Amino acid sequence: MNYEKYVAYQPVGLTDRSWPQRRLGTAPIWASVDLRDGNQALIDPMDSDRKRIMFDLLVSLGFKEIEVGYPTASRDDHEFVRHLVAADAVPDDVVIQVMAPIKGDFIERTVRSLAGARRAILQIFHPTSEVQRRLVLGMNRAELTALALDGAEQALRLQDSLPGTEIFLQYAPESFTQTEPEFALEICNAVLGFWAPRARNTLAVNLPATVEVYPPHEFADRIEYMSRSLLHREQVLLSVHPHNDRGCGVAAAELAVLAGADRVEGTLFGNGERTGNVCLITLALNRLAQGLDPMLDLRDLDGIRRVVERCTRMPVGQRHPWVGDFVYTSFAGTHQDAIAKGLKARGGSPDARWDVPYLPIDPHDIGRDYQALIRINSQSGKGGIAHLLRAEYGLELPRPLQIDFAAAMQRVCETTGGEITAAQLWRNFDERYVRPGRDAHIAPADGMSDEPIDDDSASDLLAAHGAEGVVQRLTVGAVAAGVHHGSSYACCEVLADGQSFWGVGLADSRNLAIRAAVCSAANQIHKTGPPVTSAGAVG
User: Fold this and answer.
1) Potential cystine with 485: which of 197, 234, 506, 512 (Cβ 3.0-4.6 Å)?
2) What is the DSSP string of 343-361?
């Protein structure tokens, strides 16, 4: 690898940083940029209809600031802004955001697109990094600062140009992460120094990690450096716009909030240029898992995902935090055993403190059920298999039977490969332990005795079936309500010729279930000969 062609970042050197000692409190302002920054990254950008579906979804989730377009960049963006205004689609408590480059009459044209809107954020921006100053803009620091002030003057002059529209001013030094920290501060303060004495409402500075080029802790240092040093800080919302080029967007955003950021821009599920914007869903649910209000309504997370996939025509990954198909699923045996014990310990207390191994949140809180928590393959163990039989079929198996069946299922999985569904699991269980005593599934009126039976009489019954062995263990239980195969079950272990045989009986009474279990074990002992019937006769 030709690593010598790359240059390491230079730390800002904030030796008295305070953000590591802080704890997350109230959620920052979540600002969605799905409709612009996310949309421009799509292979098939959203049309007006899909944009409107996305906008309505964002409103329903509780977003109060939504970027809706770059009106001078495309006709589609301009027309969508006009559609939202004309249709009166923006609730009173939601502020739309538009962006305008500091270039020619672009700011004025952008402001005109907002005519009739109640409230809007006007973000003016331009690149500030050294490489873009040198290669793209052909400007030095002083010339670029003059450009920023020209844009600031235009925006301020136009702030009151639309009757009935309240416009909030926001400045963004694009490529903040690749800009020298002292120059980023200098140019932001130049804009704030011009705006603050003259503007009539809150101002904002938005610091984009247009490209993520250093670790999250360095981003946090630079955000704290800016937060400490910005002029008129009490009048300024400090916003961040993390990207995910290094795979650290979520961490960078969380540390930036500790470092002083008041607002975070991002997208649903992290759509965006290259590796994407920071995922606001992940950030919000990370807070939920810490007992903090996420300030978004994510109770139907799979429904949200379906809408986003429909609008973006891109799938959400199966391992995407909090929402992927497999994120609450365990295949590993030790994990399954711990999850099963944790869920069992909770009993029927849905609001009790959540404390289940391997599950940071309760899947019910985001609209999932527990059915997919444990799935079976060759890596699974007895705990997961026992959980599925308990959850899906109402059977609480004794531990030795769990071990016996787990070994059998591991052999099946290794032979067939892939995953075993709950239905396939049940078919294997039924064939191995229940079916040999199937003819016991009759009511007492059909001729089978329902007389009480204990361990001694179970041994007598085994002998009556012509099977030589000793009843080692007999477990009886009630099947969970709603399960179709009877109200009682029995598990019978018989030791014959040094080998253990398990039979399981399912019936409408305890005694019938025991008889069926003994019959099943006896037939397994006699599997090389003619089967016996539940009445004891050779069939």
Assistant:
1) 506
2) HHHHTT-TTSPP-BTTBSS
